[in-house]
Structures are given as C-alpha cells and as structure tokens.
C-alpha cells in the first residue's frame, strides 16, 4: 500500500475575483490559509479554480503572492497543464523553483482523439525542459471536461521513463473501476492515486490510494479531512455518507458558482460570488434555494471569521 | 444574398516549426505570401495552424512578423479566441490595431456544457475591452473539437447587441442543416457565413453564404479559389467533385501532419514535417503511402518554388 507523503485531501482552491473581474489577492490568500488550517492541501489552479480562465501571468503572479504571504510551498500542487507546451513549461518551472510539493498537469486539451504518443511527448517535453529533480508531476485525468483521457498504458510508459518525477494522478473520470485499476497497477511503485472527488474517498483509501482532490474541499474541508484521517476507524461509512450528502446539495447547481455563493453567504464577502466567463454566477433565486438547503442541513464553515480577512 | 467583402476562401495557415519546435518564421512568411498569390485569405492561428499549441507571445510575434514582411493586414483573419478572456482581449486588440480584416474567435473551450449567457459575456467582454470600431469578429463554431457550440440564439443576441462588429461565422460543425440555417437566418443582415471546409463550398455559395475557411486551403488553394470564383458557371459540380477527391486523400490521415508531410515533400523543405505535441508527424510508411496516392491523383502545388524561399 502507498503511504501518502502529501496531504490526503487537496482542494482545487477557488479563485476570487473583484467586481472588475481581476483576481482578488487578499481573499485568495485568506482562503488558502484557512484551508491549510483545516488540513487541506492546496491544488491551486485546478478546474474549480477557473484556472483556464486565468492568463499565464495571472497564474504566476498569484502563486508568487501565496508564497510571499507565507504559504508553505510543500502544501501547494498548482495546476500547470496547458494546451501550449510552452505555457506548461513556464508554469511548471515556476512552481518547481518555488518548491511546490507537486504540480497537477492537464494534458493539452484542444485537439481531441489524439494518441498516447503525442501526450507522452507533451509530458516528456515539460519534464526535460524543466530539468529539476524536485519536480513531481501528478497527471490530471478528467475526461468529462478535458475530453482527452490519460490511459493506463500512457501512465505505465511515463513511470518507466520518468520514475520519481511522475508521482501520481488525480482521477476525475468518475469511473471507480478506472481508479481501482490505477491503484492496483501503479500503487505498489509508490504512485499516488487521488480520487477526483470525496465520493470515492473511503473506497480509494481502502484500496490503497492516497486520498482525494475535490471541489468541495473548498467548502467542506474539515469533515473531508476528518473522514480521510479516520478511514480505518468505526463510523467510516457514516462519515462518508455525510460527505456525500453535503456534496449532493452543491451538485444540484453549477458547482463553481454554487460554492462561491456559499462562500459569499457564510463569509459575508460578496466578492466571492464573481466568476469569469464562460461561467455565470447563481442568480438571486438560486442563491436563496441553496442557502435554505444548506441551512436545513446545518452547513457551516468552521472558523469562518478567518475568511473575512 | 450576402456580398462577400472579404476573400471567399481562407486557409487556416499551417504554422511551421524548426527541429527545436520553435516557430519557423521564414517558412511561415513564405507560405502566407504563396497563399495570397493563390487568392486565399489568411486565417492564421486556426485549428489547423496548431494555434492552441502556441503561447500568446508566439502568436503576437508571428503576426508582427507577417505584417513586418509586408503581408496586407486586410487579408488576415487571425484566430484570437482563448479559454482565458484576458488572452482573447490581448490577441484581438493586437490584431485589430494591426488593421486585420477580422478575427476568428473560438469560444472559451475548457468548460463543457456552459450556457449561452456565459458565452455572450465572453464575446461582449472582448468587444468592450478592445473598444475599436475596426473590430470584425467571426465566430468559430467547431463543436467536434471545441465541444462548445455557438447556438443560433447566441448569434442572434450578439448581432442585436453588436451589429457591425459581429461580422460572420465559420461553421465547422459538418452539419449542413446548421450552415443553411445560419445563412437563412442571418445572411440578410450581412452576416458572412463561411463553411468550415470546401466540402460545402458550392452549397454554401448557392445558399448565399460567403465561402469557406478550410484546412486544405493550405495544399489545394488554387483549385478551391477557382471553384469559389466560378460557382455559377458550367462545370461547378465537377469542380466541387475534384476538390472533394483531393480532400479525401488527406482525410485518410491525421489532417495536420498529412498536410505538413505533403508540403515537406513538394517543397523539399523537411521543416514542414514538424508538429507540436499532442500531434505526431506521419511516420515514414505513412508518408510514402500519402505521396503515392497524391502522385497518382496528379497532385501538385502550383508555383512551388516560392515555398522554397
């Protein structure tokens, strides 16, 4: 079984925007600090971070701001995958030089139906261009969004060519059989398999996986971390069921706007509502429905005052 | 019926790369000059240009190089759509300030299942940020690749809000009924509908559309331009059939590597073979098969010496 050397739960940290749609740095720093206190690792610039709605320079600047604010680099796993390999190299090199614990790398996602050879070359080019022993790549398999899957044979080849550098995967396929196959096939080599949501957390840990990297880590971090830490203890199924119930509320809406609406509501900071196109914030009626449902479920953000900084 | 004010045939100009995978500027300029002599408009930075495998600064520099080399700005329709609206603004502003005849704008293509409201906001934000009366946007509808369609109601709303700026569309859906509907519904307002390939050229022109923006404009430009100019003359169906036969050869392979292989073969400049990941060049066997088939079909690049510059 794999022993995680990194946090078992990561959040793709939401990126707050001002009314002018610029990144809101103070709120971003506050959220990262708050998540760290909850025990969550920081997978900044993920899908739920609206990372692909940020320019490369915005991503570089935001990472610099976090490090400058004293966020521990080892707790960070920035998303650095890009359609253009040149962008992926620049972002990955920057994160690695900062000492980030890893990077989470999408495949290039514009062309569809590309083969493993082309995807291998993309990852290989980044690894060779960055040329830094500290680099730890987590492959990002999210076919429902990227439409470009990362196959088991591709992982096998990357592990063979770049052992130690290709460190793990986030499996957001939603297909448990695939997650289980990744763990079974590559886990014994120390390859860290993170489920793409807490829905599969208990099963992932029981099978020998590393944990989860999950959207709702932004809004339900303490409970997910607790479930991750205590997965062998009595009550695990009940804890998993509780996580599922909270997630189900958010999933009724567009996930990112709904999580941002909850953050705005609980923190009292309306900045959190903003999203960038092509996403659209929840309207007033949707916000009220979401708030009513979360209130009925007893939803709270622990230590929410820290988010008002 | 719409009277095209722009070339009837555009090519998404292929981007050549050196052995080090850097943009090969001399070859790029030569191809653009050659295409212009064939009467083709320059939809640089399209899908077949591997535009999304280029960084923003590479795209800015390449456009500067073309203008600097004396390519007429009015003949250019650079692709400027990006996942990040900030990138789309920068690229669109740059093209517009250069006096480009138009820009071809993908929707943001990372998130799937987004609604028209979010896509409207994306285009509106670019138009408002660029704030230049010269801006002419051609919407890029290519659901097989982008997976983010541009609906008829979205076009209607954009035309209502930004008349004169939203100038046309490239329909690469491959669905003739959709192209016909776009022409019928928006053509009378002067909206220019380009088919996404020459397969639909004759039908598009007969229905009142503007022409086509097509991959094979890179390798079969003169014949496509001839078919476009003479669409009302006798022999139109035979000309269309001839275009289809040439296209069919390339379509047996991965289109971009195959067109690059043909360009390398005919020009004698091996630079043309290179592609960037995630694409992979044709292997030796595929190249020989393609060359044999093209030779059997009598395929030639007219005035090919100009491509050896």
Automatic annotation (TrEMBL), chains A, B:
GO molecular function terms attached to this record: 4-hydroxy-tetrahydrodipicolinate synthase activity
Family: Belongs to the DapA family.
Record EC number: 4.1.2.-
Name this protein carries in UniProt: Putative 2-keto-3-deoxy-galactonate aldolase YagE
Superkingdom of the organism of origin: Bacteria
Pfam families hit by this protein: DHDPS
Active site per the UniProt annotation: 140, 170
CDD domains the record matches: DHDPS-like
């Amino acid at each position: 079984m794999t022993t995680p050397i990194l946090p078992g739960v990561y959040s793709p940290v939401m990126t707050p925007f001002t009314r002018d749609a610029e990144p809101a740095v103070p709120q971003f720093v506050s959220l990262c600090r708050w998540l760290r206190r909850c025990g969550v690792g920081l997978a900044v610039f993920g899908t739920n971070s609206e990372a692909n709605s940020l320019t490369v320079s915005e991503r570089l600047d935001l990472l610099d701001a976090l490090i400058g604010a004293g966020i521990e680099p080892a707790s960070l796993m920035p998303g650095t995958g890009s359609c253009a390999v040149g962008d992926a190299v620049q972002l990955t090199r920057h994160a690695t030089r900062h000492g980030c614990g890893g990077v989470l790398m999408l495949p290039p996602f514009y062309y569809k139906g590309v083969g493993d050879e082309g995807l291998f070359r993309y990852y290989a080019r980044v690894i060779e261009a960055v040329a830094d022993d500290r680099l730890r790549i987590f492959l990002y398999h999210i076919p429902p969004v990227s439409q470009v899957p990362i196959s088991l044979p591709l992982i096998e080849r990357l592990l063979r060519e770049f052992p130690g550098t290709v460190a793990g995967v986030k499996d957001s396929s939603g297909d448990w059989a695939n997650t289980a196959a990744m763990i079974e096939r590559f886990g014994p080599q120390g390859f860290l398999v993170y489920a793409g949501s807490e829905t599969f957390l208990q099963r992932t840990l029981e099978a020998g996986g590393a944990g989860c990297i999950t959207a709702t880590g932004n809004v339900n971090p303490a409970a997910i971390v607790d479930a991750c830490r205590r997965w062998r203890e009595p009550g695990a199924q009940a804890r998993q069921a509780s996580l599922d119930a909270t997630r189900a509320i958010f999933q009724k809406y567009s996930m990112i706007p709904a999580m941002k609406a909850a953050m705005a509501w609980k923190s009292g900071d309306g900045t959190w509502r903003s999203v960038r196109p092509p996403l659209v914030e929840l309207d007033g009626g949707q916000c009220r429905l979401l708030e009513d449902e979360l209130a009925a479920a007893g939803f709270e953000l622990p230590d929410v005052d820290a988010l008002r900084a």
